[in-house]
Amino acid sequence: MPEPLKIAPANGRLGILTPGMGAVASTAYAGVIAVRKGLAEPIGSLTQLSHIRLGKREEGRNPLIREFVPLASLDDVVFGGWDPISPNALEAARTAGVLSESDLAPISSELEGVVAMPAVFDQRWVKRLDGIRVKTGENLFDLAEQLIEDIARFRSENSLERVVMVWCGSTEAYQEASAVHDTVESFEQGMRENDENISPSQLYAYAALTSGVPFANGAPNLSVDLPCMIELAARNRVAYTGKDFKTGQTLIKTILAPGFKARMLGMRGWYSTNILGNRDGEVLDDPENFKTKEVSKLGVLDAILQPEVYPELYGNIDHVVRINYYPPRGDNKEGWDAIDIFGWMGYPMQIKVDFLCRDSILAAPIVLDLALLLDLAQRADQSGNQEWLSFYWKSPHSESGSPEHDIFIQQTKLKNTLREWMGESPVTHSEAG
User: Fold this and answer.
1) E-strand spans in 76-159?
2) Which of 91, 191, 234, 431 is most buried, most CB within 10 Å of its CB?
3) What is the pTM of this model?
């Protein structure tokens, strides 16, 4: 068996800061508060509900993950965040319309108490939104320092032992890394000079890593997966992970595609279209913001199906992704998939999927899990990219350049990492308990 890691205990209170307090963040806050009050179950959360098999099946050791590894208790979690629009989490939740008033009423005072700090916001990156509660400063470096001060004040006012940050803000306009992102020094100089290639999410990532706060990127933005941020995380020994929460349509792809490949069924095309409203749909209605999301979504199939290994099965796939803003849907996104596969002797077959999902309901438990597991990694002195958390991401960051997208392999990697950290042998053949 491997030697267990020395993991600091989860003593004291854990702060979870979210840049963005819209539909996803307010739903996550509400769910945790409701669970603490005994009003709901944490459905969708691996850290709260999933078991983990230890040793051989006949040993019968199958504890809950939260009983096996020293995770922070939900009773010790404190929420905070920034938002350019909503003044507090209750108003944000009511505006988003994800949760019913009957579910919000019993927890309204707690949600109202989560007051949003003014946000770093630049409409160049999200053209469809207007920020009204926005920080001002001499330059971007000044804005980053204000975020660092916010983190310190949040930690002090709530008597927190530890803090993690999970980006729950909007998808920013598409960009590629530039020279300003090469080193910490070039990035800091770029902030002082208001370099146009520095986005708000990068300022949050910089503030978190500078403050020793683990960072998770819930959108497809370039933020922590940049040379300067990787260097900063290493310098300050901070854990990070990302990017883009794996929720609706991409979740379905990473479940179905491994099954087709397992049976060696060929694929000719996969057409995906989404209709959604809410703030997310409005932002993605802009072509530059959609391109950021499109790149994140399109990378999944190639990584799973390996067309370079199986060219006769997967070497000629038309993979199309569309997103359409449709306000009546609100947060209840509808994802249509038309999948063209072929089997024995090349005969074609079709599969149609219509997933009427609730995006924030799927994302909220991911926010919780990532916060608790990043906090665990930090206490285990596991700095840098936490690739074992790829289970949660549409576009996981991999320093090798070849991220894993098969959700079943990702699950095994996640659980085996926990096993090894706790001194248990890995399980490779079955997760069944």
Assistant:
1) 77-82
2) 191
3) 0.92
